[in-house]
C-alpha cells in the first residue's frame, strides 16, 4: 500500500528539512514523480515506483538509477545527485529514490539549435566509461510485439522490420547508455541544457540505440524534420552514419505488448510512427 505521507517524512529526514509542499510532475511512465519543497527553501524530486509492470522491478530500477547518478557526479553530464534510496519499499510501500531537483524544464518542440545541443550532450554521455559496466541493454521490441498494427499504411515494412529483428544484430562497441534519452528527459534553462533526468534504464550497449530512441520519439511527438536533423547532428559527432538496425529496433519498440494500451494513442502519432518505421526499413 502506497504511503505518500511516510515517503515525504523520509525525504525530509534525508534533506534535514521537512517537506512543506509537493506537486506531481508531468510524465512519469514508470513512476509517480513528486517535486518537493523543503522548509529551508531547497527542492528535491521523489520517485515512487508505483506503475505496473515496472513496480515489480522497482528495486532494480531505482538501484540502477542511484548507481548511475553516483557515477555521474564527477562527469560533465548534468544529472541530478542522489540523496537517498529505499529500493526495498520499507518506507512507502513501493521502491523510492530521492534526488536533487535540477533547475529547468523540458521543451515540447526543440528548435534546430536545441536539436544540435541534444546531439552534443548525447555524445558526452557516450564518452563516459564507468569502471563497472552497467547491465547489457534490453530490447523493447519484444517478439510478442511483432504484430502488424491495424492502422498502418506500410504493412510490408512492418513485416520486413520483424524479419530484420529476427536476424542477428550488428556488432557494436559497448557504450554507456542513458537508454531513454530524448527531449522529454532533457531540462533547459536560459536556452541551455540544464539537466538530463530519468536514469532507471541505464545500460551498456550500442550508441546508436540511444540516438535511435531520441530520433523516433522526436519523429512521433514532433515531426520527422527534427528527428532527421538530430540523426544528422549525432552522426556528425559520432563520425559514422545511423545504423538502420537500431532505428528499426527502437521504432518497433514503440508498439504495445499484447493486451496493453499503446504508448501513443493519437491517429497523427500512429501515422508518424508508421512513416518513421517505413523510413527506417528502407534505409537498409
Automatic annotation (TrEMBL):
The organism sits in which domain of life?
A: Bacteria
Q: Where is the Aminoglycoside phosphotransferase domain?
A: 23-238
Pfam families of this UniProt entry?
APH (PF01636)
Task: Name the InterPro entries on file.
Answer: AGP_Transferase, Aminoglycoside_PTrfase, Kinase-like_dom_sf
Q: Which PANTHER family match?
A: AMINOGLYCOSIDE PHOSPHOTRANSFERASE-RELATED-RELATED (PTHR21310)
Query: What's this protein's name?
Result: Phosphotransferase family protein
Amino acid at each position: 500500500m502506497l504511503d505518500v505521507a511516510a515517503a515525504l517524512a523520509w525525504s525530509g529526514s534525508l534533506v534535514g528539512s521537512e517537506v512543506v509542499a509537493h506537486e506531481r510532475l508531468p510524465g512519469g511512465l514508470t513512476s509517480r514523480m513528486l517535486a518537493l519543497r523543503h522548509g529551508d527553501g531547497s527542492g528535491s524530486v521523489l520517485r515512487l515506483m508505483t506503475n505496473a509492470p515496472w513496480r515489480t522491478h522497482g528495486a532494480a530500477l531505482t538501484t540502477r538509477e542511484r548507481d548511475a547518478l553516483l557515477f555521474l557526479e564527477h562527469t560533465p553530464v548534468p544529472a541530478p545527485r542522489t540523496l537517498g534510496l529505499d529500493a526495498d519499499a520499507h518506507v512507502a510501500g513501493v521502491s523510492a529514490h530521492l534526488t536533487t531537483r535540477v533547475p529547468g524544464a523540458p521543451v515540447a518542440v526543440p528548435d534546430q539549435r536545441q536539436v544540435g545541443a541534444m546531439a552534443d550532450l548525447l555524445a558526452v554521455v557516450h564518452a563516459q566509461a564507468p569502471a563497472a559496466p552497467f547491465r547489457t541493454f534490453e530490447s523493447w521490441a519484444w517478439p510478442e510485439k511483432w504484430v502488424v498494427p491495424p492502422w498502418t499504411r506500410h504493412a510490408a515494412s512492418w513485416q520486413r522490420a520483424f524479419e530484420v529483428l529476427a536476424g542477428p544484430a550488428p556488432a557494436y562497441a559497448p557504450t554507456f547508455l542513458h537508454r531513454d534519452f530524448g527531449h522529454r528527459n532533457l531540462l533547459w534553462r536560459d536556452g541551455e541544457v540544464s539537466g538530463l533526468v530519468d536514469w532507471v534504464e541505464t545500460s551498456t550497449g550500442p550508441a546508436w540505440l540511444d540516438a535511435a530512441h531520441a530520433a523516433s520519439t522526436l519523429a512521433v511527438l514532433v515531426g520527422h524534420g527534427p528527428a532527421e536533423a538530430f540523426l544528422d547532428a549525432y552522426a556528425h559527432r559520432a563520425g559514422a552514419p545511423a545504423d538502420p538496425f537500431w532505428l528499426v529496433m527502437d521504432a518497433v519498440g514503440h508498439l504495445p505488448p499484447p493486451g496493453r494500451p499503446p504508448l501513443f494513442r493519437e491517429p497523427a502519432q500512429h501515422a508518424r510512427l508508421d512513416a518513421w518505421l517505413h523510413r527506417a526499413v528502407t534505409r537498409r
